[in-house]
Amino acid sequence: MKTKLKDKELVSKFMNGDKSALETLITRHKERVYTYIFFIVKNEKLAEDIFQDTFIKVIKSLRQGKYNEQGVFVSWVIRIAHNLTIDFFRKDKRMPTYSNDENPDIDIFNSKRFSEETIEDELIKNQIAKDVRNLVDELPSEQREVILLRHFGNLSFREISEQTNVSINTALGRMRYALINLRKLIEEKDLNLSIM
Fold it and tell me: Which of 24, 58, 124, 175 shows the greatest Cβ crowding within 10 Å of its Cβ?
């Protein structure tokens, strides 16, 4: 069964003409990649467009032999998604903004495991998610980037260092300063980010 195959085996099958192998890879990683893109752009349609562009570029890169099998496939895909997202904002010359008012039905922090909670609990979680996102937006760009890659892209610090072309120590330092700055911002704004 294809789902039991490792990513590199599926890549190899795709390179040898098995299109269903790519479908398996996309299905396996779509939630992680889409969530990463959506968290940055905060717009469902735009996230879908960038997601599609990401896999178009993945297909082209695979066909051109640009995938390094020593890397982790999903990290490579997230790097492509990250670069396409940055390219979009460079072209558009604007930074993303977050507002629950635009589409209150979308909440990436929402999860099925919380479905039995009360409406009040859900409202509190939505407000916390909004507050956290606003705090992350106030960080310097290098600190914001490492937070997004680590906590929403689920990349390791080694993968972050490779993607951002800095040492692991620099990536760790940026995370440390990001957390220090987030704590300061929470205190300054006197925010309560606990559910209870």
Answer: 58
- Dmax over Cα atoms in the chain, in whole Å? 57
Cβ–Cβ < 8 Å for 97, 42: yes
Distance CA 54, CA 74 (A): 12
How far apart CA 155 and CA 81 sit, in angstroms, is 13
Rg of the chain in Å (alpha carbons): 18
CB 125 within 8 A of CB 109: yes
CATH of the structural domain 1-97, one choice from 3.40.50.720, 3.90.226.10, 1.10.1740.10, 3.40.190.10: 1.10.1740.10
Mean pLDDT, to the nearest integer, of 44-73? 85
**pLDDT, average across residues 89-95:** 61
- The CA angle 94-97-103, to the nearest 5 degrees, is 130
Q: Of 70, 73, 62, give the one whose Cα is nearest residue 30.
A: 73
107, two tokens? 């909440």
Domain(s) labelled CATH 1.10.10.10 in the chain stretch across: 117-196
Closest CA to 8 of 17, 19, 20, 21: 21
Q: Is the pTM of this model over 0.85?
A: no
Query: Sign of the CA dihedral 87, 49, 41, 32?
Result: negative
pLDDT at 170: 93
